[in-house]
Amino acid sequence: MRRLDASDPGFAAEFDALVNDRRESDSDVSADVAAIIARVKAEGDAALADYTAKFDRFDLDASGWSISKQECAEAYDALAPALRDALNLAAERIRAYHAAQLPQDRDYRDTAGVRLGARWNAVDAAGVYVPGGRAAYPSSVLMNILPAKVAGVERIVMMTPTPGGEVNPVVMAAAHIGGVDEIWRVGGAQAIAALAHGTNRVAPVDVVTGPGNAWVAEAKRQLYGVVGIDMVAGPSEIVVVADAKNEPHVIAADLLSQAEHDPTSQSILFTDDGDFADAVVENIEHQIRSLASGATMRASWVAYGAIIIVPNLTDAIPLCDRLAPEHLELAVDAAQADALFAKVRHAGSVFLGRQTPEAIGDYVAGPNHVLPTGRRARFSSGLSVTDFMKRTSFLALDEASLAAIGPAAVALAGAEGLPAHALSVQNRLK
Amino acid sequence: MRRLDASDPGFAAEFDALVNDRRESDSDVSADVAAIIARVKAEGDAALADYTAKFDRFDLDASGWSISKQECAEAYDALAPALRDALNLAAERIRAYHAAQLPQDRDYRDTAGVRLGARWNAVDAAGVYVPGGRAAYPSSVLMNILPAKVAGVERIVMMTPTPGGEVNPVVMAAAHIGGVDEIWRVGGAQAIAALAHGTNRVAPVDVVTGPGNAWVAEAKRQLYGVVGIDMVAGPSEIVVVADAKNEPHVIAADLLSQAEHDPTSQSILFTDDGDFADAVVENIEHQIRSLASGATMRASWVAYGAIIIVPNLTDAIPLCDRLAPEHLELAVDAAQADALFAKVRHAGSVFLGRQTPEAIGDYVAGPNHVLPTGRRARFSSGLSVTDFMKRTSFLALDEASLAAIGPAAVALAGAEGLPAHALSVQNRLK
């Protein structure tokens, strides 16, 4: 854990180092992934069966390629009622937030008499990757599938590895709630390749989203352009801006809620009170010892955790913008939270006030928890319905409007040395 | 040129072949590009100077690294008045169309008392690549810069190679109109690397857009994630749906207006009249012989051109959707154009009616001419202001709303095995 003080003479350099800290894997899996993609493209289902036997110790041909809708419905029915209600509340709120995101079509005539517009359509099919093992989160299933569903995508395909045959029943229940159309027991780069290129069994999709390990992330990167993808995702991160009026154990738990995701997660506290910072650190140490996810939290906190003392909390905001964090918690009084938020330019999602822990946004608030990491909030946004849609622009001219603006097009085509462009306009000018 | 008839028994297979036709370069420049990026990252300006001397025969240190705003203003002043007016009309219409695209912020309280919303901000800096040589189009300068400007981007950086020192004065004039802040005389993969990673001279940007050759395209693909990019672009294409009431020479010019871009461009005509098709082909042959861009048009038309006879123009639309073309011209009566367009799902931009040649959209109509190619209109959209912006979601709960939805978050965190998530919510529940 690093402790920085903005009033120290060496602060600027230390903060630069924090900003430029590289937490993402440097392991180069690109050649392996390229080989897997090429083989799935060439051999299709046979390659999927072979990789799945090798990596997941699972025989697709003998034990079944897919998980049925019926099995998902049964998993849903078997859930403890409180958990079922929680999933349904989450789904309902995620649906509502994303429905309000649906973009408006445009169709208007401007002063030159030109009809102009844009129309949105959903993609035909979306693929959602769901990891097996540690990161198999039902909340991620909802966060990826529901925006596609709200966008109007007619075919939603889930890919998930089932190592040794094991499936997570809560993930299946979430797939049931989300309304997934197909689930294939395939994981890794081979699953992404199948979604992008298609096989005999798996028809190709148009957009692929969802978290995954380094192989999955690299496969998405390599297949970007063949299909649309959500984003290049890295380890999770949180920045908390908190004053001394917070209870230290509350802020400690907020910081640790990211640290428990992965040893490469990052939690950073900005505060204007050194004693409060000490108390938070003490509470973090205590909670790391007492919670089941302590080992992961300790690894993350020791390697990447940071406390930054600022003279005034307002001074934290430009520093936050440099970090462009995935999650930013402004744990101050409501009015001050609004004032600080008004100055924020770069963050994936912002949590305002003392009663808004980041974890509420992971599950039930409604906004998407798939957010840009690794300073990418400088230029990218959380997952939304528009990631599963595309916009077609359109225009219509008549003789009068073409007469008004056509000659300018002819002049520009001439300047660019494109005579057929000029001719196609000139042919219609009287 | 291929001629297909939808009523032929072999049509489905022939059309599949057309859809899957690969026009994009297979040349693997990825290793070369990776080496260039690594060297620019390590050596900065020295690498830029060296590559520019080698590839563009231009000595940056001796002859100047940048083109000044003053030089651009002078190029603008020196333009022929008709061309200057045409550029200004184009700029004004592009600005107006894109200003209407600006997304709305959201900030509302839902029935559970949760405050929810999303706020859009421009990125801090955008880089626009402008090729030298054949594809140095002032219209592309406007189409890339103006959306960034309308989005509110405060720093816009142009990168353009000046082989042997040569610059295109109309491109400089367009940069003046657009309001570019910096122009560097650097091209190729090294220009994209400088924009993404920065050098001593060139501060890094957040988003990189603009067309380029295979090296530029591959550099953007490799640096996607370090910066945002517009899209993976391929050769241009047009699909024209036309009945026999059109004049054949008019439709011929429309088809050739894409064919003249590049030998790998593609022009496809759907019509319900074989005699009309014959007349269009005859006119194409004639225009290829008479226009200055004939050699490029001939190469494109011979290799990739197609005429498809359909029993009824309505039958063309599902086939168009399979092609998901960059440009779709519906050259029929206005009412029928609307009816056909209502059925279109996948196209970059659609041109409605007999008085709307595609070329009008390349220059002055207002919608962006940077559009998805190579069937990517299935999942992606033309360049827009939102490519230069990003959305920050936000939420605020109070005691009552946290009491309403917090327990569900605790239940889900428990099911996912994330105790610090649960604790951070529980800490705030009374």
From TrEMBL, chains A, B:
Q: In which pathway does it act?
A: Amino-acid biosynthesis; L-histidine biosynthesis; L-histidine from 5-phospho-alpha-D-ribose 1-diphosphate: step 9/9
Q: What is its EC number?
A: 1.1.1.23
Catalytic activity, as annotated: L-histidinol + 2 NAD(+) + H2O = L-histidine + 2 NADH + 3 H(+)
Please give the SUPFAM superfamilies that the UniProt record associates with this protein.
ALDH-like
**GO molecular function ontology, one term from the record:** zinc ion binding
Cofactor(s), by name: Zn(2+)
For this chain's record, the cofactor binding note is: Binds 1 zinc ion per subunit.
What Pfam families does the record tag this protein with? Histidinol_dh
Q: Give the GO cellular component terms, alphabetically.
A: cytosol
Q: Which residues bind Zn(2+)?
A: Q258, H261, D362, H421
Keywords associated with the record? Amino-acid biosynthesis, Histidine biosynthesis, Metal-binding, NAD, Oxidoreductase, Zinc
Which of this chain's residues are annotated to bind NAD(+)?
Y129, Q190, N213
Query: Would the keyword Metal-binding turn up in this protein's UniProt record?
Result: yes
Binding-site residues for substrate, renumbered to this chain: S236, Q258, H261, H327, D362, E416, H421
Q: Does the keyword NAD apply?
A: yes
Give the active-site positions.
E326 (proton acceptor), H327 (proton acceptor)
* Coiled-coil region: none
Q: Name one GO biological process term.
A: L-histidine biosynthetic process
The family line of this record is: Belongs to the histidinol dehydrogenase family.
HAMAP family with a match to the protein in the record: HisD (MF_01024)
What does this protein do, in the record's words?
A: Catalyzes the sequential NAD-dependent oxidations of L-histidinol to L-histidinaldehyde and then to L-histidine.
Q: Which PANTHER family match?
A: HISTIDINE BIOSYNTHESIS TRIFUNCTIONAL PROTEIN (PTHR21256:SF2), HISTIDINOL DEHYDROGENASE HDH (PTHR21256)
Protein's name in the database: Histidinol dehydrogenase
The major lineage groups are: Bacteria, Pseudomonadati, Pseudomonadota, Alphaproteobacteria, Sphingomonadales
